[in-house]
Design goal:
Length: 739
Amino acid sequence: MTNTFFAKLASFLTFFVPRPLMDYYAFRVWRSGLFDRNFYRGVNRGVNPIYRAFPIRHYVRFGENIGWQPNPDFSPEAYKRLNPDLADPKVLPLLHYIRFGKKEGRLIKDISSGPRADDISIADLRSLAALAPKVPSRFAVHAHIYYHELWDDFSRKLVDLDIPFDLFVTITRFGEKTDALRAEILEQFPTATVVFMPNHGRDIFPFVHLVSSGLLSRYEAVCKVHTKKSPHRKDGDIWRDALISGLLRGKDTSAYLDRFLADPMASLWVADGQHYDDPVWWGSNLAVADSLLRRVELVADKDRLSFAAGSMYWLKQELVATMRGLSLTAADFEQEYGQVDGTVAHAFERALGYMAEDGGHRIVQTSQLEEMAPVEIAPRPDYVSAFYLPQFHRVPENDEWWGHGYTEWVAVSAAKPNYDFHHHPQLPGRFGFYDLRQTEVLGEQAELAKEMGIDAFCTYFYWFDGKRILESPIDRLLKCPDLDFPFYLCWANESWRRNWDGLTGEVLLDQGYADGFEEKLANDTAVYMRDPRYQRPDGTRPRFVIYRPEDIPDANASIARLRDAWRTCGVGEVELGAVLFHVEGEHQFDPDLLDFWVEMPPHNLVTPEQYLLGGPADTELDLHPVAGFSGLIYDYRGVVANSNSPAYTDKLPHNTIAGVMPSWDNTARRGASGHIAWGSNPMTFDAWMAQTCTHRLSKSYRSELFVNSWNEWAEKAMLEPSRQYGDAYLRVLAKWSKT
């Protein structure tokens, strides 16, 4: 030990002893601008801190001799090999290139000999989606095979797993030998999905392409591995084996996955030593990573970086879904030239770290799972409701006001972005552009909602002193008694106005309260309350919600008369509630007349501290709004924090149902004057659900949860599957609402 200590000490001292030739070399390297300090420190992470402080000196004295690269593009070993006249050991590769090679146009690294992207067609997303197993396993493993000779190592580890999993293999095709490998894989794993891919986007694009197809969305966790060699690392084979063995744990894999899944805030599991947490690792990837992150409403910070190196990991469902939201295609990835940094694939690796930690989630390493203490299971709601909008069908009034053929879909599909990477239009996924006059659509929606933990739809009921509008879906439902659609009504008692906010602008349909309206309203709603599918969450009373009771001129008297009218018409007692609105109404009333209140984000949750754009003060976040934008952008993550702050919760009525929203953005209705909650994605919604179940449910009315909403597409407040995120928001809800 003493000899080793003195040897290291001598090496350090020698490192600082002047050596004219080496010092001249270091000067030429520094002046050339060809040395990338961040890259060198990042790739060679184990270098002693003293050496890391002087990376150029380390390179010219030690690094070059062992084949370390000074930047992503220059390989000392390849430079001498590709230029045989430089075989003399005395030739210093980078110095020669600086002095002569650059002018002579000499080759500086190996060029990939694999097929280019356009040599092999990329499987289209719909074809891939059709390959999905009808009954998926709990887990999925994706293996990308570039180096065919490494498949045997993978297959041995896969056979040894003690978990049920579906296998997805993507292979870079190199002629007939790849066909033979595919046949071998299918012989070993007959149910595997094997897809040929071009040599494009490294191992990242094949994985992203599967994710974008929706193939991997149904699994509790997904493992991504690949045949990594990393030619720029001398320990590439050892590194690869450590990465894979740290994740595919043989007969212990199930136990590790149980621990991973038990921690609700762990989103990504990586092998030991592969969680890098230092901004020095940005290299030349910061700008590209930032552009990727803005697609899912995140921004990169040059002073913060935490990510999983090596591109092998286990991912939870909500993180896979957020990745899908990037909407990456083959066109986003560069052609393959053997780059070791600075590509979209490298930037994605770092951006994934931000996504994995969004909303307070975290990256865990294998040993951390071993040391994990038991996690207390958060409460689950006893009853889950979601607001339901019946706007998706034609009515004569909308034809007159907005043009022939108008439905909510017209506004949704015509929405345009208000800032860079603003994802519009938001388009429907699984159910398409449905027409709610087709009653089978309601059945399909209800079936999915039930599967994902929703107990009832709170359906908007538009009633203007006896005049009905948008009543067709719910009326047709009554004629289909075999269709399972649990619902109750919310009287949306506000005027319809041209600017859609119910408060200002030209009145299209006025909400009045004529003498005796209570009896008419009770009789009109009693028809639905008598339907066996009409919900009685307390087991006895049908439930009814009034959107804005404070707009009723004499609400105290009207509520009493309304209750009496329901009794008179045979309905009996009604469980009556109202929405907590962000603007006070014209008339005061006794809130104790109501059985409950519904928290409906974003009402009352947006404060000046959350304003990002359009508020009283500018913020450091530059979203690059379009010219003429006059709306308001606020922080979704800040809204989530507010929803659990005592300053907010202490003011809520004691009988309030806790509410959440997957997202909010009414650009489709208000264009450049829209109000937008920036920062929503499946990870941040998961954080809101975790927070609500852990801290709010115990005080929520009857331990219930309310979601705004199922299908408010023009306000981007929808749980329904979309093209961007698939059914991710529903799966997050299911995770926290089902036991």
